Amino acid sequence: MEKTRNVARRFGKNERAVIFKGDCLDFLGTIADETVQLVVTSPPYNIGKKYEKKLKLEQYIEQQAAVIRESARVLKRTGSICWQVGNYVDNGSIIPLDTILYPLFTQNGLKMRNRIVWHFEHGLHCTKRFSGRYETIIWFTKSDDYVFDLDAVRVPQKYPGKKHFKGPRAGQYSCNPLGKNPGDVWVFPNVKNNHVEKTEHPCQFPIELVARLILSMTRRNDWVLDPFLGVGTSVVAAVLHGRRGAGSEISTDYVRIADERVRQAYKGSLRYRPMHRPVYDPKDAGHSLTQNPWDKLEYKKKQLALLETSARYEVEEQCE
């Protein structure tokens, strides 16, 4: 980890970490064309959380269009934009924001490379529809000549010992020794109350999710930008992996938290969930709460029935 550095308040090419307190469009306006290698963000979903002002859908789209336009301007020719979004809920009706926002990217000459599904297990339990357990990351590039380092983010093979059965490579291992492509469905725990990274922000990025994007789409010392920084996860992930990070945030409380997290990342004292750690499975861990109490009751009933039958046989034998 690098030595502790200052967290700048204004963008400068020689800085390592920048957290701007204010509107994202004001911040983007201070950055020169084609400066940033990766723009990664999770904008407000416009669902009325305490940190956002709910807008009419048309107003929300107009706001997002302005930010996307400026993000495309500051993006390098080899760069990528990753927009992580969920659903807009209008009077109980679901509107997937990625489909709404897609044209705003293509209008700026950007090309879609993946629609990544982020799957998680925990969330609100719905009663009138299936509970939502995923969000999407839409990945766009500015040109066909873009940075993508698959080897940096490979995951363990399911069958690492598998070999070719026939042909000229018969007997040789058939898989890549570095691991396999993680695919476009990513399973990361969302940051809830028992997550090691949890802050007071209700909808924060997990560091490992952002890290996978950063490691695959940037090189060391490249700029990573988050227009809707929140509590600083994107800058933290950049710092942890030797990149430069910048972001803007309007909440004073979140700026304070982001600043502290970045400083902890520089010091090596930040607690976070490392990449490639298996998702906790309570059944595999033998957690007592995974045992169904109704199954236990049914088992006890069967045991009692066997005892009663055995007792009846004993009485019948004594009578003989």
TrEMBL record:
<dbReference type="GO" id="GO:0009307">
    <property type="term" value="P:DNA restriction-modification system"/>
</dbReference>
<dbReference type="GO" id="GO:0032259">
    <property type="term" value="P:methylation"/>
</dbReference>
<dbReference type="InterPro" id="IPR001091">
    <property type="entry name" value="RM_Methyltransferase"/>
</dbReference>
<feature type="domain" description="DNA methylase N-4/N-6">
    <location>
        <begin position="36"/>
        <end position="259"/>
    </location>
</feature>
<comment type="similarity">
    <text>Belongs to the N(4)/N(6)-methyltransferase family. N(4) subfamily.</text>
</comment>
<keyword id="KW-0808">Transferase</keyword>
<protein>
    <recommendedName>
        <fullName>Methyltransferase</fullName>
        <ecNumber>2.1.1.-</ecNumber>
    </recommendedName>
</protein>
<dbReference type="Pfam" id="PF01555">
    <property type="entry name" value="N6_N4_Mtase"/>
</dbReference>
<dbReference type="InterPro" id="IPR029063">
    <property type="entry name" value="SAM-dependent_MTases_sf"/>
</dbReference>
<keyword id="KW-0680">Restriction system</keyword>
<dbReference type="GO" id="GO:0015667">
    <property type="term" value="F:site-specific DNA-methyltransferase (cytosine-N4-specific) activity"/>
</dbReference>
<dbReference type="InterPro" id="IPR002941">
    <property type="entry name" value="DNA_methylase_N4/N6"/>
</dbReference>
<keyword id="KW-0489">Methyltransferase</keyword>
<dbReference type="InterPro" id="IPR017985">
    <property type="entry name" value="MeTrfase_CN4_CS"/>
</dbReference>
<dbReference type="GO" id="GO:0008170">
    <property type="term" value="F:N-methyltransferase activity"/>
</dbReference>
<keyword id="KW-0238">DNA-binding</keyword>
<dbReference type="GO" id="GO:0003677">
    <property type="term" value="F:DNA binding"/>
</dbReference>
<keyword id="KW-0949">S-adenosyl-L-methionine</keyword>
